Predict the structure.
Amino acid sequence: MVKPKKVLTIMFIPHGQRRTRSLRISYPLFSCLVGLFCLLLVTSALFLTRYHKYRRTLRINKELVEEVTEFERAMRVVGELETKLRIMTDTEKEGIATGGPTEERLSDLLKYIEERPTLALEDVRALERRAVLQAKSLKELAQILEGQTIELAHTPSVSPVKGRAWVTSLFGKRRDPFTRRWRMHEGLDLAARHRTSIIATADGRVRFSGRKGTWGNVVIIDHRYYGFETRYAHNRRNLVKTGQEVKRYQKIAELGSSGRTTGPHVHYEVRKLGKPINPMLHIVNLEDIGRESY
């Protein structure tokens, strides 16, 4: 005797007077349909999970690109500041290591980003914060150095005579060559050939240029920092005008013997806050000055 097939009957009962419909499905076919449905459900879940992960990865990579761009910008600022500091400190050609990433380190970083984008994003953000702080620190240092550079440029530090010169009278008490009385000599007398160039010993502005009593032709420069002022007297002729801006080593006069002198020389004074100080303390190129008188 043949066993009857096991089937499922699904009945569709419409509203109204329409006929009832039925669908007969065998158990094996029903099992296949249920299996296919479950497989489709699992596949859809896996697809949605992977799609969500893909979208998250795209978002992280986009953020990573933006962070890397910001990091590169910050590092450019650091590099520019470092270059500026090296120029200001004259160390740009000394081969000092800059601490920047090498090609090998960059390759390792890119590989790390591909393997762990989330962690790499945090690392780049940390690097960016460090770069910003370093840039801020370097900027403050650059401002300090720039201020110091400006101050140094306005501080008398070289001989007022271009080339070789000889000291004929030091700063301090001496016998006046005309009255033979002891009096304070408030400057330094440097002798050289007639018409030798007289140069500004620091940056500043000409406060006075003209004739002044026994000094003859004199140039007075206000250096504006620390109250420094320099005076150059007995010039053959002055080459700058009152109110003119001058730079260190700029020719401002020609050496001569105008005024009351015993020969061609420049009477050079350095004053600080109105008080005369020893000019020898502000001449770094003493090798250009003869030592016949001291």
